[in-house]
Design a protein that fits this description.
Strand content: 15-25%
Order of helices and strands: EEHHEHEH
CATH superfamily: Beta Polymerase, domain 2
Distance between the termini: 33 Å
Strand order of the largest sheet: 1-2
Mean pLDDT: 93
Number of strands: 4
Structural class: alpha+beta
Helix content: 25-40%
Low-confidence stretches: none
Length: about 90
């Protein structure tokens, strides 16, 4: 498990996120939508972090089929637009 920290308004460290490794969550790559995997790979190839989050993770953990995949990244909207040239920022 990885723990991501940030700082509060006073500069004190605070836990922001818990990231589970592949060996901890046990979600097979084959159960993740191929388009979602391609997006994550392109973001990572460009040097950014990217993760599947939200309901898709919950669904996969209880062996349900997710209806969509939410991806979070540290790439800015302008960088995303350069990586995915056909995208629109809304």
């Amino acid at each position: 498990m990885l723990i991501r920290y940030g700082t509060d308004k006073n500069g004190k460290p605070v836990k922001k996120a818990v990231i589970y490794t592949k060996s901890e969550h046990g979600i097979p790559k084959e159960k993740i939508d191929s388009d979602a995997l391609r997006i994550i790979e392109r973001l990572r190839d460009a040097g950014f972090n990217s993760y599947i989050v939200g309901g898709a993770v919950r669904d996969l953990l209880v062996d349900n089929v997710p209806k969509d995949f939410d991806i979070v990244t540290d790439a800015t909207p302008s960088r995303i637009k350069k990586i995915f040239r056909n995208s629109r920022i809304i």
